[in-house]
Amino acid sequence: MNIKELQIDEEFKNLIAPLQRKEYLQLEENILEDGCLNPIITWKGYIIDGHNRYNICTKHNIPFNTIEKDFDCRDSVIAWICKNQLGRRNISEETRKYLIGKQYHAEKNASRNPFGFNQYNRNKNGQFKEMSRHRTAEKIADENHVTHVTVCKYANFTSALDRISEKAPDLVPKILSGKYKISHNALMEMADMTTTELKAVNEKMDNIGSIFLPYSQSRSIIANPSYTPEQIHKPSVKDMPEFDPDANYIKLALTIPSWVNIIIKTKDTTDISIVSDRAKQKLTNVLTELQSISTDLLNLIKESSNG
């Protein structure tokens, strides 16, 4: 049986978070048992969704279907991939930030015409007007339940990572996976480093030998270029903290968007006039409690930020 050959674009592929080994093996087992149930999505013969399915199908000579998408330009493809990947639940917070920032840049580029203006720069008569620099950010912010200011911050995060990737590509996957916890300001500093400096930072971080590198240690390495790998303390199991102070906050930040989606879907698709008073009261009690707890947590975060 001849399996259709598809093209791989490395930039497209790199926007898709890799599956963990256990997830990949489970997918392979499912395809071997049931066949490839989900089609592989392509653009001009290049895979834009389904790289793992394609690898498994070609490896085992299993037929698959494809759906060819139509896009105006490459940036539109990138924006689509980012939006599609943001629907996954198993991506790290760093990957989520990167994809939101990448989608912002891609949509801005895709909407621009050869004169450097975008689709929002024409008035009713078709004449160019002053560009609204927030329009794209506001759209993406609404889709991801963040503010447009946050989208712009994530765009800077993405730009910094792309600059780092040009000089030290091996470092980026470790940041996106969450292995190296690096603050926004520290990442901006790293983007301005030379190739030699970035490789040294990567080597120092690797030499710590920890599965997970917290913000404090990464800050020390980035802020002290005179450190050598031999001078950095390699922690033993006894040195490791009992818990990661960021873990619950990050977990909550990843969980809440799914709640928001369910709330919006419930509000928009359910006719409240046919909902029983008992069900409405039960939800009211829970939402009121959530509102109170959320306000307390927000105040706590603000106080710690101002402290």
Helix content: 55-70%
Structural class: mainly alpha
Low-confidence stretches: 114-121, 127-131, 232-243
Number of domains: 3
Count all strands and give the number: 3
End-to-end separation in angstroms reads: 67 Å
* Order of strands in the sheet with most strands: 2-1-3
Order of helices and strands: HHEEHEHHHHHHHHHH
| Overall pLDDT score | 82
Global shape: globular
Tally of helical runs: 13
Radius of gyration: 23 Å
β-strand percent reads under 5%
Largest sheet: 3 strands, mixed
Quick summary:
With about 300 residues, the protein is mostly helical.
Give an overview of the whole structure.
It is a single chain. Strands 2-1-3 form a three-stranded mixed β-sheet. The model is unreliable at 114-121, 127-131 and 232-243 (pLDDT under 50). The chain folds into three domains: 10-70, Conserved hypothetical protein from pyrococcus furiosus pfu- 392566-001, ParB domain; 93-122 and 132-237, no CATH class; 270-307. By secondary structure, the chain is mainly alpha-helical. The protein has helices at 10-14, 21-34, 51-60, 74-85, 93-111, 135-144, 148-167, 172-176, 184-191, 195-208, 215-223, 247-269, 277-306; strands at residues 40-43, 46-49, 66-68. The longest helix is centred in the last third of the chain and has 30 residues, at 277-306. α2 (21-34) crosses α3 and α4 (74-85) runs antiparallel to α5 (93-111).
Write the layout of secondary structure elements.
Blueprint lengths: L9 H5 L6 H14 L5 E4 L2 E4 L1 H10 L5 E3 L5 H12 L7 H19 L23 H10 L3 H20 L4 H5 L7 H8 L3 H14 L6 H9 L23 H23 L7 H30 L1
Parallel strand pairs: 1-3
Antiparallel strand pairs: 1-2
Helix pairs in contact: 2-3, 4-5, 5-6, 5-7, 6-7, 7-9
